[in-house]
Task: inverse folding
């Protein structure tokens, strides 16, 4: 998935979220309904229907070019579907894309931190862009730095951070907007084993509180974090379920074998 920038939806009074529809606090986090997107003749996302529950940690896996990035871009309201629809927090991508973009956030593969700003300034800047007052932004930054164990680096410029700490900051910049759904794109790419495990532990802490859609090529990462995993190939859904479901449906002994079976060119064609 290509790197993307965190998008700011503009100011909201007090920086607080306001329910936008009666469905807002109930029902699934995401419901795809025959969602389709093409680029010219190439169908990048092909007739996807699936549901992600509130608070679910949901994995999105697939070979290169499977359509994961395109799907995430649509669900963030960054690009419009060609046909079908999805409801995110009860709101339609077709009619409420702007409202959706205020309630979700994306932690991109290539971190979007400002190298010359400090850790605290990066966090406060994002909170302010999302409409928080100066005091609220400061308070949220303190909370995020504490939960992501960045407090002792608050005044350090982002460019002085190690890869692992920069990834944590990037995650913090997504979480500081208090999104109801957060999309994480390869959050531990390029990290050493210890930093990766460290970040996994922090990500596991989101379980049940925030709906997370994790895109990754690291099968172990999806296995260890995700409640359910969707596996895509050529824009199509090849399987969705817990790791045990994928093992059962393919008869494979390992998740890697199950993934290979489900993404095989012949399978599901
Ligand atoms: N802006 C675009 N213009 C034309 N084709 C595109 C565009 N974006 C994506 N595609 C094509 O759509 C298909 C799906 O691409 P997408 O980036 O969504 O896949 P992905 O699963 O995120 O891949 P990767 O794992 O390699 O990042 C690919 O065939 C890709 O070449």
Result:
């Amino acid at each position: 998935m290509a790197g993307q920038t965190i998008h700011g939806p503009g100011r909201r009074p007090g920086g607080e979220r306001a329910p936008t529809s009666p469905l807002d606090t109930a029902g699934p986090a995401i419901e795809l309904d025959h969602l389709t997107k093409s680029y010219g003749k190439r169908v990048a996302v092909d007739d996807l229907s699936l549901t992600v529950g509130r608070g679910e940690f949901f994995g999105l896996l697939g070979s290169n070019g499977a359509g994961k990035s395109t799907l995430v871009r649509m669900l963030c309201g960054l690009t419009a579907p060609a046909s079908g629809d999805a409801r995110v927090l009860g709101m339609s991508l077709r009619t409420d894309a702007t409202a959706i973009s205020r309630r979700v956030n994306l932690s991109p593969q290539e971190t979007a931190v400002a190298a010359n700003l400090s850790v605290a300034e990066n966090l406060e800047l994002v909170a302010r862009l999302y409409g928080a007052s100066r005091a609220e932004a400061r308070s949220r930054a303190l909370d995020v730095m504490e939960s992501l164990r960045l407090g002792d680096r608050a005044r350090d410029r982002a460019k002085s951070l190690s890869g692992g700490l920069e990834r944590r900051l990037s995650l913090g910049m997504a979480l500081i907007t208090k999104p109801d759904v957060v999309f994480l794109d390869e959050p531990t790419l390029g990290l050493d084993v210890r930093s990766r495990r460290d970040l996994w532990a922090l990500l596991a802490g989101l379980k049940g509180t925030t709906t997370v859609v994790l895109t990754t090529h690291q099968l172990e990462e999806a296995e260890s974090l995700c409640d359910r995993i969707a596996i895509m190939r050529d824009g199509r859904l090849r399987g969705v379920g817990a790791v045990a479901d994928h093992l059962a449906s393919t008869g494979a002994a390992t998740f890697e074998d199950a993934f290979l079976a489900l993404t095989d060119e012949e399978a599901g064609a």
Observations:
- Confidence is low (pLDDT under 50) at residues 1-24.
